[in-house]
Design a protein that fits this description.
Blueprint (H helix, E strand, L loop, with lengths): L13 E6 L5 H7 L4 H8 L1 E4 L12 E7 L2 E3 H13 E7 L1 H5 L12 H11 L17 E6 L9 E3 L6 H13 L14
Parallel strand pairs: 1-2, 1-3, 3-5, 5-7
Antiparallel strand pairs: 4-6
The chain binds iron/sulfur cluster.
Amino acid sequence: METVIEPTTARKPRFASAWLGGCSGCHMSFLDIDEWIIDLANMVDIVYSPVVDIKNFPEDVDVALVEGAVANEDNLEVLLQIRKNSKLLIAFGDCAVTGNVTAMRNPLGTATDILKSVYVDSTDMQQQIPSRQHILPVLMEKVRPLHEVVKVDAYLHGCPPSAADIRKALEQVLAGTPELIKESKAKFG
Ligand code: SF4
């Protein structure tokens, strides 16, 4: 772990969480921190998250929790924005860490193989792969965990990580000791 968020910074740390190719279960677990989310909101500025209505990832983010794997081109674009603008990027949950459930399609072939099998080879009518430019995000041929695409600073395992582990990890980040995140229990979906 190279990046440490200084707890004595004059401004509040800027906190983000993002949802890429995942089921949102990691963010549901995040909400299970219950009333501690009020304490968290007092300690940080939540500048981007599914729990706030901000469309574009902002600049100068101190810590970003990123749920889900890279499954389509939208995920890729958002992840590159997150990496470019975040000091500490945490792979949040097993889909982000390993691909996990989101990557279960990988052994079946490429996205093109699977789409062709479902929409062309297995149908008798209107055999065509669905494609609506700027409406349907284009699938990556293979789903990738975050660290295969960008540098990841820390990993928070679990499917989903427990609320207790999420709180512990964030407390450590805010205290400037994020290396302890590695003690989170690994649990694979
Ligand atoms: Fe959902 Fe589990 Fe993946 Fe989190 S790690 S997005 S809970 S499948």
